[in-house]
Amino acid sequence: MSKRSNQDVATALGVLLADSYILALKTQNYHWNVVGSDFVQLHQLFGDQYEALSGAVDEVAERIRALGFPAPASFGEFTDRASVKSTAGHPPARDMITALRDDHLTVAKSAYAVIKAAESASDDSSADLATGRVTEHEKAAWMLTALLG
Question: What CATH code is carried by the domain that includes residue 123?
Fold first, then answer.
């Protein structure tokens, strides 16, 4: 791979990292602050999703480093790169579910962009990582959609 193709993959991974980090933070917020008759179920689901996202963030950052680039690691860098938007406050549980579903689909799109860049660079490892992320985010979106009925 050329330095330029590595840079393209690292840039796409940086967006995936930022989206994943902001989604993890939002999911943790909802885990802590969900209320209502479905509290136990949602608290557990959001907790499981937060833990999975935390692991994914580390995996994506380490892949950026393996390509020879610094991983973005500040709120400012994440905010500048991310498609997922951070939100303040504590919406009703149904709005939390909808927001997280939509955000998982957004992160899946970021992972698809990594796949495209990685395939152009013949970077099977980054493509594989991103394919796994697509699978996880689409599954999470499906589960959240099912909760909405």
Answer: 1.20.1260.10
Residue spans of alpha helices (H) in the chain: 3-33, 39-66, 75-81, 93-120, 124-148
**Pair 123, 9: CB distance under 8 Å:** yes
Helix (H, G, I), strand (E, B) or coil at 85: coil
Range of the domain at 97: 3-148
Token couple for 37? 């008759």
Encoding tokens for residue 4?
A: 């330029």
User: pTM surpassing 0.85?
Assistant: yes
Q: Which residues of 93-122 are buried (b: 16+ CB within 10 A; e: fewer)?
A: beebbbbbbebbbbbbebbbbbbebbeebe
Number of domains making up the chain: 1
Per-residue pLDDT of the chain (149 residues; tens, 9 = 90+): 566 779 999 999 999 999 999 999 999 999 999 999 999 999 999 999 999 999 999 999 999 999 999 999 999 999 999 999 988 889 999 999 999 999 999 999 999 999 999 999 999 999 999 999 999 999 999 999 999 99
